[in-house]
Write a structure and sequence with these properties.
two-stranded antiparallel sheet; flat
């Protein structure tokens, strides 16, 4: 059904949100799988609850008029390979024959056995790849330009081959033939010209040229075989090397800090380069210029290209030295010019115990004083509120301001009766 909004509602779903006087179109498809009886008919109803009920009656025509007219039937027609009758333009095959033109005279089971691929057990490569006709596979061609399928069992094609990350068949660098990429041909199947780029790999995605592995201005792949190998147009670097051309290696060649441990230690301890002639030689026996800085630290801003190294000492300090070098291409071709050593070692600063203790004590006192101040402020506020409340309640009092009936004088007077009689006698 289709609502007025243009929304398509497929079978098995209801139409929601339909308002009064809104048009809803119903499209119904009825399929008859087979005819039953001489004059088959079928009836049913289509009901829209609460609105209408539509009765539907179907009269099925199972035979064509030409089938009843013997004059139009061509018996054992040549168009049916002489094994069937041409009726109403189609062949009705005799027993033990089949096919569009009755050209097959074997049973379907026997025919299919000849179409089964022994490698995978599929009949003509599967339902989507081909059909078995008279014991032979008839391949189904895809509905796409330049796509083809062929083979005894329809097992070959020019599109079922490895693809690259962009989903391109044979990376658009080769021809797909029966599931295998032929990198010596173009994607159209023609031979490549000598000037065309060459590729290899299962998906023809690996260029055979090594030009992309050579750094500008150089003539060696990946900065030399000891640095890396050119694989598929990219440098695969050896351990400790990196970079596009494997030309970066901090610890290779003359920049290996461990080569100069004895030399630097000797110069640092003796303070004299002349006493360390044997220690300060390279692998070829040449003297390495080594100098202890006159300042506490070497001014590296004036060194140019250099690498910082360190040697740990027994007192948890580090001897810092610098390899001043000149870059002449690869990491092995670098030339060491000089070794410069800091005059003082790099030691971790000892903690100031007094400052730490004083800080802890001061912090505790500060927190205590802060808490006392806060407590004093709190109690002052509470006392003021209570006093204010007392004044308000006293001002609202209505009792008499006279003496309380419970009040008693602190003095009590007594009269002596004898005192009065004595006075009268006199």
């Amino acid at each position: 059904s289709t609502q007025s909004t243009g929304e398509l509602i497929e079978s098995g779903q209801g139409c929601s949100g339909v308002s009064i006087e809104e048009d809803v179109d119903f499209e119904i498809v009825i399929k008859v799988p087979e005819c039953v009886g001489d004059k088959p008919s079928y009836s049913f109803t289509i009901e829209v609850p609460g609105i209408a009920t539509i009765p539907v009656e179907i009269d099925m025509i199972c035979t064509c008029p030409c089938e009843d007219d013997d004059s139009t039937i061509e018996r054992n027609s040549e168009k049916c390979s002489g094994s069937g009758d041409l009726i109403c333009g189609s062949c009705q095959c005799h027993s033990s024959t089949y096919g569009d033109h009755c050209q097959c005279n074997q049973t379907t089971e026997v025919s299919n056995e000849k179409c089964i691929n022994p490698d995978n057990g599929y009949i003509c490569g599967g339902d989507n790849n081909g059909k078995c006709i008279c014991g032979e596979c008839e391949c189904i061609q895809p509905n796409r330009n330049n796509y083809m399928r062929w083979g005894t069992y329809c097992e070959c094609s020019n599109y079922e081959c490895p693809r690259n990350n962009d989903n391109e068949i044979c990376s658009n660098n080769g021809y797909c033939f029966c599931g295998v990429c032929d990198c010596q041909k173009t994607k159209d199947g023609t031979d490549k010209k000598p000037s065309d780029p060459k590729f290899t790999g299962d998906d023809c995605g690996c260029p055979m040229s090594t030009e992309t592995c050579i750094a500008p201005g150089k003539d060696i792949e990946c900065s030399g075989p000891s640095n890396g190998q050119c694989v598929c147009g990219e440098c695969q670097c050896e351990q400790d090397h990196f970079g596009q051309y494997c030309d970066i290696c901090p610890d290779c060649g003359p920049l290996n800090c461990t080569l100069y441990t004895d030399c630097v230690t000797c110069v640092y301890n003796t303070k004299k380069e002349s006493e360390c002639m044997e220690e300060c030689k390279d692998v070829e026996g040449n003297k390495i210029p080594t100098m202890l800085s006159t300042d506490d630290r070497v001014d590296t801003s004036k060194l140019g290209r250099h690498k910082q190294c360190s040697i740990p000492t027994d007192d948890d300090c580090d001897i810092i030295f610098y390899l001043h070098y000149e870059d002449k291409g690869t990491s092995i071709q670098r030339e060491l010019l000089q070794i410069l050593i800091d005059k003082i070692p790099d030691c971790p600063t000892e903690p100031n115990i007094i400052a730490i203790v004083a800080g802890v004590i001061g912090g505790i006192l500060g927190i205590g004083i802060l808490l006392l101040i806060l407590w004093k402020i709190y109690t002052t506020i509470v006392d003021k509120r209570e006093y204010k409340k007392f004044l308000e309640e006293r001002s609202k009092a209505k009792w008499n301001t006279g003496l309380s009936p419970l009040y008693k004088e602190p003095l009590t007077k007594y009269t002596n009766p004898l005192y009065t009689a004595a006075t009268s006698r006199i």
